[in-house]
Design a protein that fits this description.
two-stranded antiparallel sheet; 29% strand; zinc-finger; zinc ion binding; transferase; 77 residues; mainly beta
Amino acid sequence: MTMTRIPHSVSFTFNPLVDFNITIFYFATELASCMFTSVYPEIYMRRKIPFQKRLSWNFYQPSGTGIDLGFFEMDNL
């Protein structure tokens, strides 16, 4: 039997007061001065998503850019 894996993605609603970018990091480590790096860069390529100042933005991670948690054994998550 083949199991279909569904990638997990991020979504939320927000109200930015200034123009900005969102960058999603999966399995990241924080470095000095609030910088982040991916622990597994081969499984997810980060990308910046720009937003403009506006009320009630709904963010839905673009289709095909989620993370497949089936990459890991359950005990390692």
